[in-house]
Amino acid sequence: MQWTLVIPLKPLTRAKSRLSDTAHDGVRPGLALAFAQDTVAAALGCPAVADVAVVTNDALAGRELAALGARIVPDAPGAGLNAALAHGAAAVRASRPESPVAALNADLPALRPLELARVLNAAAEFPRAFLADAARVGTTLLGAGPEHELLPRFGRDSRARHRASGAVELRLDGVGSVRQDVDTGADLRAALALGVGPHTAAVSAGLLIPGS
Ligand SMILES: Nc1nc2c(ncn2[C@@H]2O[C@H](COP(=O)(O)OP(=O)(O)OP(=O)(O)O)[C@@H](O)[C@H]2O)c(=O)[nH]1
Ligand SMILES: C=C(OP(=O)(O)O)C(=O)O
């Protein structure tokens, strides 16, 4: 089964605010873009992925991610993350009604295509399924099979909220690159230890990372 991924990305100047102690205002938008570029490139390299739609109103990110092969869907609702994801899922279902759809965070710079394939193949066994993030509090991926609504509940404590919504939690080992989202300097160090993609490697090379 091949999936369509929906990846949300807010305007780069507002993105990754929790990284402000690690990357100053002049660097952070470029870092957020690099995370998204490495996430999208790995997703497009995944054998279980048919296509990738990025929901964003950021013009630069839209151009750069389209150049990698993503479809850009404007964040027409402008009403936050879950509204953006529901809108993106509806847009991709309009052109690919039979496709399973998965929401994936844009901040997975260590993402490995074959680990993503393992997660998507596991998710294909259930109507709705999700993967908890590395901290086991949030969510990095939520998938819905054909004829099932995505019903995204991302944000604070989303692991508990996705579980409460009836989605099945995927209990997989060896998929750390799909779980490792980057919100803080400590997360960035963990992602660098896993091995990040080339865009993030280039931008983070110049950063002084506290604690490293
Ligand atoms: N299109 C869209 N994407 C969003 C929106 N809010 C958040 N996102 C994206 O959803 C993912 C998780 O978002 P957040 O954790 O809220 O924001 P963040 O930029 O990752 O980090 P912080 O600013 O530190 O909270 C990231 O890929 C964001 O870019 C939104 O309103 N619209
Ligand atoms: C939005 C989420 O991720 P983040 O850790 O980036 O806030 C989430 O876990 O639901």
Automatic annotation (TrEMBL):
It comes from the Bacteria. Its EC number is 2.7.7.105. Pfam families: CofC (PF01983). It catalyses: phosphoenolpyruvate + GTP + H(+) = enolpyruvoyl-2-diphospho-5'-guanosine + diphosphate. The keyword Nucleotide-binding applies. Keywords: GTP-binding, Nucleotide-binding, Nucleotidyltransferase, Transferase. InterPro entries: CofC, Nucleotide-diphossugar_trans. Phosphoenolpyruvate binds at residues 139, 155, 158. Pathway: Cofactor biosynthesis; coenzyme F420 biosynthesis. One of its GO terms (biological process) is F420-0 metabolic process. Belongs to the CofC family. HAMAP family: CofC. Guanylyltransferase that catalyzes the activation of phosphoenolpyruvate (PEP) as enolpyruvoyl-2-diphospho-5'-guanosine, via the condensation of PEP with GTP. It is involved in the biosynthesis of coenzyme F420, a hydride carrier cofactor. This is Phosphoenolpyruvate guanylyltransferase. The lineage of its organism: Bacteria, Bacillati, Actinomycetota, Actinomycetes, Kitasatosporales. The gene is cofC.
